[in-house]
């Protein structure tokens, strides 16, 4: 039976690693031309004289912005960001936006089952695509499939400005930003320019991922972005046949890290085949299987995040208070 459990766990892991979330990419000129259609912004070169490269990208109508980040790729950051966004909308009854800031490998179109070019409003701003009660904007909506985005940091930030401020979001209580993985120039620039209320760090339990997670925490702290907490993704595998629990990547590493760094531990999300299947189908498990155990975990974590932001707002250390309806 133990051998069967290990086999099922391996199948689940391989399926997660082989998912086709990443392949939506774009060539530099085609993507830039798509963005330049919107009259809100000119096609000027990034960093041109007269523009402050560190000016804040305040987004009209958006109350609070939360970054969902990871120190490395492959830990389930985008899946977590999408399910948290849906949980904010469905569980917390908030008006939610989802900004896909990973211009090199945009995942939101696949995970939210959205495609097509955004329409324009009367002011030539893009109208976000919407599903599951969440308004979304992604470079993937403007890209041709499989074309690479060969952009340097300044051009990434210019594109992000168009995606964020060039979108007519309406009234948004909380915006979730799916950050690109890592701690490079683009990640630092995004963290400095977006008025982030806080950051959520996603990691798997093994030491390699946790080392990078610590780097991510340190990056946000250096740019004065408070850490909401750490989520341990793929925390354990529960065999659907016999119920035996296996620690595929170890267990408890993120909790220990949060204790060491004096941050809140937000929760454990298991390695679960249904999460992979619903993600590939573009039906986040929080919406498609609301009574499942995993959906319940995402909802609990979403409420913890909202509560944390509320605490910060009450003592004046963060942005506007978010009220769960």
From TrEMBL:
Residues 1-23 form the signal peptide. GO terms for cellular component: mitochondrial matrix. InterPro entries: Mrp-like_CS (IPR000808), Mrp/NBP35_ATP-bd (IPR019591), NUBPL-like (IPR044304), P-loop_NTPase (IPR027417), YlxH/NBP35 (IPR033756). Its cofactor is [4Fe-4S] cluster. It is found in: Mitochondrion. One of its GO terms (molecular function) is 4 iron, 4 sulfur cluster binding. Keywords: 4Fe-4S, ATP-binding, Iron, Iron-sulfur, Metal-binding, Mitochondrion, Nucleotide-binding, Signal, Transit peptide. It holds the Pfam family ParA. It comes from the Eukaryota. GO terms for biological process: mitochondrial respiratory chain complex I assembly. Belongs to the Mrp/NBP35 ATP-binding proteins family. This is Nucleotide-binding protein-like.
């Amino acid at each position: 039976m133990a051998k069967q459990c290990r086999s099922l766990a391996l199948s689940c892991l391989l399926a997660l690693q082989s998912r086709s979330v990443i392949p939506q990419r774009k060539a530099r000129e085609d993507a830039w031309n798509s963005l330049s259609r919107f009259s809100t912004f000119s096609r000027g070169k990034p960093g041109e004289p007269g523009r402050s490269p560190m000016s804040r990208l305040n987004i009209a109508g958006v109350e609070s912005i939360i970054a969902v980040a990871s120190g490395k790729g492959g830990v389930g950051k985008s899946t977590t960001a999408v399910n948290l966004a849906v949980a904010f909308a469905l569980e917390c009854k908030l008006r939610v936006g989802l900004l896909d800031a990973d211009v090199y490998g945009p995942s939101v179109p696949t995970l939210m089952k959205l495609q097509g070019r955004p329409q324009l409003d009367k002011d030539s701003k893009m109208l976000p695509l919407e599903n599951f009660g969440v308004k979304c904007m992604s470079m993937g909506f403007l890209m041709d499939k499989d074309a690479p985005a060969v952009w340097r940091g300044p051009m990434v930030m210019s594109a992000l400005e168009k995606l964020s401020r060039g979108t007519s979001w309406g009234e948004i209580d909380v915006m979730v930003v799916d950050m690109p993985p890592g701690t490079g120039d683009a990640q630092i620039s995004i963290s400095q320019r977006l008025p982030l209320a806080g950051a959520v760090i996603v990691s798997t339990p093994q030491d390699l991922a946790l080392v990078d997670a610590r780097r991510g925490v340190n990056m946000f702290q250096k740019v004065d972005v408070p850490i909401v907490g750490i989520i341990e993704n793929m925390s354990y595998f529960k065999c659907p046949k016999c119920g035996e629990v296996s620690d595929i990547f170890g267990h408890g590493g993120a909790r220990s890290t949060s204790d060491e760094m004096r941050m809140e531990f937000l929760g454990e999300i298991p390695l679960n085949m249904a999460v992979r299947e619903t993600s590939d189908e573009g039906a986040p498990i929080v919406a498609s299987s609301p009574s499942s155990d995993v959906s319940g975990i995402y909802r609990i974590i979403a409420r913890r995040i909202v509560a944390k932001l509320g605490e910060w707002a009450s003592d004046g250390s963060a942005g506007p208070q978010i009220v769960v309806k």
